[in-house]
Design a protein that fits this description.
With about 450 residues, this protein is of the alpha/beta class. It has helices at about 1-15, 30-45, 225-230, 280, 290, 380-385; strands spanning about 45-50, 70, 80, 95, 105, 120, 145, 165-170, 190, 215, 220-225, 245-250, 250, 265-270, 295-300, 335-340, 345, 360-365, 370-375, 390-395, 400-405, 415-420, 425-430, 440. The protein has a domain at about 1-220: Ribonuclease Inhibitor (Leucine-rich repeat, LRR (right-handed beta-alpha superhelix)). It contains six helices and 24 strands. α1 packs across α2. It is elongated, with a radius of gyration of 27 Å.
Length: about 450
């Protein structure tokens, strides 16, 4: 029983299930499994496990043996972390888990000089910490530094010597500037800089972090061109379905410089104030395949977005090709749009033929939205359509429509269109006082 349990625990460790999960995508053990794991590790001299023990002080010094490999003191009430400097160095210690010690305010500067082989340091949700000891800068073998939820943390010492660091999580902290030496972390794969008071990512840093697979900036403004060079990004900063995904937030100088990696499944764009059209993605140097594989599109807080694909802009005709490339949005399953006040219409009618896999439309708080499917901008074509009883279009997989707080919305689409939605099961409408009917939809 012991050997089998120990082997199972080892497999959990190898799969990183004992480390803190990312932004709510957690793996939760059954209580019995958790209790077994705690029991097994507590019996091994190589593990010091005192999680959930309501500790207010560190374990006694005789428990800090020099052959320790992993220490977990998570979810206690420890306020100070100090060790007797006469203790031998913990040359076997690879993992130190201190997360959710919300009272932890002080970490002695000399502590980490005893832990020269440390690879994983988790201080997540130690809310009371304001500064980290400078000795962290000497942890040259550290691969993960996790500080998410340290809501009062204002300063992180130099990271320049942490050359093998792969994961750096500074989300939901109070740091006011990018940590010194960040550009030296060339092996970094995960970077969360969703810090309340960071407003700018200095130029020249992101291109050096070319191995990044996850990047979250949000409040920190970065150059779009620099983000576009991070071709290995594969998971959106907003979470959600796994797969190859890109999240873009708070960028300046958007223009035509942004490039989207090919074969993505999820695209999230938010707080890009100068973005006017997603059409700009379509025309960038053969990146059309990015929109051909896209399954999930999220657009939010884009104050100047006026069209998704095509529209007459400032009196000039859009350069949207006719006909639209067949593959564009052909894999799209969900589109979710929040707080895009200048957006008047979602889709040109000719695009609907590409949306045969669309399952869900959600639109919230777009104060200027007039209709979901726009009328043709071609007067001759419009007259031709009007002379017919109806133009038959189909969204065969559309299952759900949610329309909320759209004060100018008047119709789903123009009356001359009949849109057959054989799979439609749910329509939710709230705060749309001018919407009188959605009769062109025929489930």
């Amino acid at each position: 029983m012991y050997n089998k349990g120990h082997a199972n625990l080892k497999r959990l460790e190898e799969n990183c299930l004992l480390e803190s999960a990312d932004h709510g995508n957690c793996v939760k053990m059954h209580d019995l499994v958790r209790d077994m794991a705690l029991y097994i590790t507590s019996q091994s001299p190589r593990y010091l496990v005192k999680a959930w023990n309501q500790l207010t002080e560190l374990p006694t010094e005789h428990e800090w043996t020099d052959d320790l490999q992993k220490v977990s003191l998570m979810r206690n009430d420890i306020s100070k972390f100090r060790l007797d400097m006469t203790l031998p160095k913990f040359t076997a210690l690879s993992t130190l888990l201190l997360q959710y010690n919300s009272s932890l305010r002080e970490i002695d500067d000399s502590v980490f000089t005893l832990m020269t082989e440390l690879k994983v340091l988790d201080l997540s949700h130690c809310y009371s910490i304001r500064n980290l000891p400078n000795s962290i800068s000497g942890l040259v073998k550290l691969t993960a530094l996790l500080l998410n939820g340290c809501g009062n943390l204002e300063h992180v010492p130099s990271l320049a010597k942490l050359g093998v660091l792969k994961k750096l999580d500074l989300g939901y902290t109070r740091i006011t500037a990018i940590s010194d030496g960040l550009e030296m972390l060339v092996h970094l794969r995960y970077l969360d800089l969703y810090a309340y008071d960071i407003r700018e990512m200095p130029g020249g840093i992101l291109p050096k972090l070319f191995r990044l697979q996850y990047l979250r900036l949000d409040n920190a403004v970065a150059e779009a061109e620099e983000v576009s060079r991070l071709t290995r990004l594969d998971y959106s900063f907003l979470g959600g379905r796994r797969g190859k995904a890109v999240g873009i937030g708070g960028l300046t100088n958007f223009g035509d410089s942004i490039k989207i990696p090919t074969d993505i499944q999820r695209l999230v764009i938010q707080h890009c104030d100068d973005l006017r059209r997603i059409e700009c993605f379509y025309y960038l140097s053969s990146y059309t395949s990015a929109l051909q594989t896209l399954e999930d599109l999220v657009l939010q807080y884009l104050d100047n977005l006026i069209a998704i694909l095509g529209e007459e802009i400032d009196g000039a005709k859009s350069t949207l090709p006719t006909p639209i490339t067949p593959g564009i949005f052909s894999c799209l399953k969900t589109i979710r749009i929040w707080s895009c006040p200048k957006l008047k219409r979602l889709f040109p009618p000719k695009l609907l033929r590409n949306l045969q896999n669309l399952e869900e439309i959600r639109v919230w708080k777009c104060s200027g939205l007039v209709e979901i499917v726009e009328a043709s901008s071609d007067k001759e074509e419009e007259d031709k359509e009007a002379s017919k009883n109806s133009i038959k279009l189909s969204l065969p997989n559309l299952r759900s429509i949610v329309l909320r707080f759209l004060p100018e919305l008047r119709s789903f689409c123009k009356s001359c269109y009949a849109i057959h939605c054989d799979s439609l099961r749910s329509i939710y409408i709230e705060g749309c006082p001018k919407l009188k009917t959605i009769s062109p939809l025929f489930p």
